[in-house]
Amino acid sequence: MILGIGLDLCEVGRMEEALCDARFLGKYFAPEEQAYIQQRGKGAARSLAGHFAAKEAGLKALGCGIVVPLREIYVTHDEKGAPRLVLEGKALARMKALSGTTMHLSITHTDGMAAAVAVLEG
Question: pTM higher than 0.90 for the full model?
Answer without folding.
Answer: yes
